[in-house]
Design brief:
Length: about 270
Amino acid sequence: MNGPVLIDGQFRIDAYAPAEIAARVESSGVSKVNLPILQTLVLGILAGAFIAFGAMFYTLVITDNGLGFGLSRLVGGIAFSLGLILVVIGGAELFTGNSLIVIGWADGKITSKKLLRNWFWVYIGNFIGAGVMAGMVSLSGVMDAGGGAVAKTAISIAQTKMAIPSIEAFLRGILCNVLVCLAVWLCFAAHTVSGKILSIVFPISAFVALGFEHSVANMYLIPVGYLAGAAGVSIDGFIANLIPVTLGNIAGGGVLVALIYWIVYLRKPEQ
């Protein structure tokens, strides 16, 4: 149902039904691909910066917290959720979330050219935003917090990502963006800001706690580790991580979420 409804003498706000969510996601995608390039790029830069804020928060929270592996990752995941909350509520353009545009492409309402143009400029914007934030954090002295403990955590994160084999990075990228796009999908079901925030926290906390790979988060986490002095972290290694993770993110969000939901709810019998 689309708004307040009277049930047993009380007004209640129901979430949008799944078929309605699919239509809303498709409509949003059509709007996104028709944005001017400059607007798309700037919104992409903002999203890259927002995800970087979440990654910064995550790095600080998991540093020397004494909570144990699982609980530490959970708390870190909750902190990282800040990034997608800022993106969704603030209206920025995130490459991973924009994998959902595939639903409009599959329905014939978005051309391949417009889809790829959106992804290209959003990806570039995300890269700029995350990279600038990595540079600012490096120069700001934030890494010195906790007697340098935050820097050690940042270095450890970057080195761990460098050690992930390409096939594992690809698969972790798939799993990551399934959860990210499901978080965005659930946001389209909500009527309120609080509902959207709640929709984000659990899926995002899960992907972070489980160690899945997010291309835009890595645009911040690997460079900031490199700038903190991480041994074994290089530009070549960064690219070698980013390519399979990005492809995995596209497959996870574009195929396993957007395309599947299109088949279930929007595909016409003749298609």
